[in-house]
Amino acid sequence: MGLNNHKYLFTGLLVLFITLNSFESFSQFERLEQVSSFYSRIDNPVTIDVTSHQERIRFTAVNKSPFPYEIEIEFSTLQNLLPRITSKKFIVDQGRTQLFELTRQYSHLGIDFRYHLRTQIGNPGLAPDTIFPYLIPLVPDREISFIGVENWDTVNIVRNAFSVEPGEPVLNMRKGKVTAIHSAKAPGTFFYQEKVSHLSIVEVLHRDGTIAIYDGIDPAFLLVKTGEIVYPGQQLGLADEGSMITVRLYHLAEGGILRYLDMNFAINEKEAVLFNDLIDKKINHPATVIEREMNRRERRLFRSGSLY
């Protein structure tokens, strides 16, 4: 089963820009933005909400970031409260997470507590799936065209860059949550996000802590919003006038460090290859790859053509 039930928004016509068969050899040209830290961050992404009810004090984390955070609460003062906690660490996702409760030990005595909060973006317990098969982010059943520069008998192709026509649909490569966008309809959001790259138009966080970066989408034709769950093959938007869609993958490692990862692109149900090995391949979106991380309900909706 493929994507026959799904429709895409197009503007313009599809044109193949570069055919590498006519050249004797090719090499890979690195022209990607390399990052090690976030381009922009939000202030105070995690706060602690402390409430009291009768003899109990409840601590709740409020995470306004789309990313998980590792937090540590360390008490410097804790009087007449149980359990006696020195420090505790938690992983908190977006929204509210109840952490723990403290109970007054002696009802006739007062209580006192003071604590420090440390936060670090990401979940250090997540390891990237380095062999995960990603969809090629373009409409299937066509040949792949690349961005290349001829140099004598060699073509230097831009790494992870696909040649496209303006207005061509750009598709999501893996299930995840949209963490940042650069939308013409909401230009202010560009600066007030947990954003990896200043170049990106869409950024998507995956379950293993990897982040896909999409550049080359027209901000005026963006079809997703921050916080939305997006699925493989779902349209993110339309290509801009630059005639190039660039995708990158980073892993959010311990300490909030971003590490670049190579992607494996699915070419059939059982095989995924690196970008360099896509030469002479056609775009294929296997249903087994699309459904790989879906739950039962999502699979049912996808197969009926009503998931997105």
Architecture overview:
This protein is mainly beta and 308 residues long. It has helices spanning 287-290, 296-303; strands spanning 25-29, 46-53, 56-63, 69-79, 81-82, 87-92, 95-104, 112-121, 133-134, 146-151, 154-163, 169-171, 176-181, 202-205, 210-215, 217-222, 229-230, 235-239, 244-252, 258-261, 264-266, 272-273. It has 2 domains: 20-40 and 127-303, Glucose Permease (Domain IIA) (Distorted Sandwich); 46-121, Immunoglobulins (Immunoglobulin-like), CATH 2.60.40. It has 2 helices and 22 strands. The strands form 5 sheets. Strands 1, 10, 11, 13, 14, 15, 17, 19 and 20 form a 9-stranded mixed sheet that branches. The protein starts with 24 loop residues before the first strand and ends in a 5-residue tail after the last helix.
